[in-house]
Amino acid sequence: MRPKKTRWVRCLPKERFFKPRCKPLNSLESVRITLDEFEAIRLACLKGLKQVKAAARMKISRPTFSRILTSAQKKLADALVNIKAIQIEGGCCQLIKRK
């Protein structure tokens, strides 16, 4: 397996863990969203960027961006539909410093 190329992110989440209010934490399952998946969701869904432009910002190919985005969307859908906590951590990422 090839090593993953570093994905560049501009925005780190202010919170790293989200949980539904309806269940206590000890009875919840959780899904793990990586920082690159968080960035893909931010760029595509929140900022409304096309995949080509978003991929360029993360310094990855468009097909790789598409795979990351699809993975993140599946995990978020699973968490929302099945009442799971969302944990944001990990991934092969480097923070882009703002000027």
What does this structure look like?
This protein has 99 residues and is α/β, with parallel strands linked by helices. It has one domain (7-92): Arc Repressor Mutant, subunit A (Orthogonal Bundle), CATH 1.10.10. 40% of the residues lie in helices and 16% in strands. It contains three helices and five strands. The strands form two sheets. Strands 2-4-3 form a three-stranded mixed beta sheet. It is elongated. The mean pLDDT is 87.
How would you briefly describe this protein structure?
The protein has 99 residues and is an alpha/beta fold.
- Give the low-confidence spans: none
Q: What share of residues are in beta strands? A: 15-25%
Q: Calculate Rg over CA atoms.
A: 14 Å
> How large is the count of helical segments?
3
Distance between the termini: 36 Å
Order of helices and strands: EEEHHHEE
**Major beta sheet summary:** 3 strands, mixed
Might you state the CATH topology name?
Arc Repressor Mutant, subunit A
User: How many beta-strand runs?
Assistant: 5
CATH architecture: Orthogonal Bundle
Please give the CATH class: Mainly Alpha
Strand order of the largest sheet: 2-4-3
Oligomeric status of the shown chains? single chain
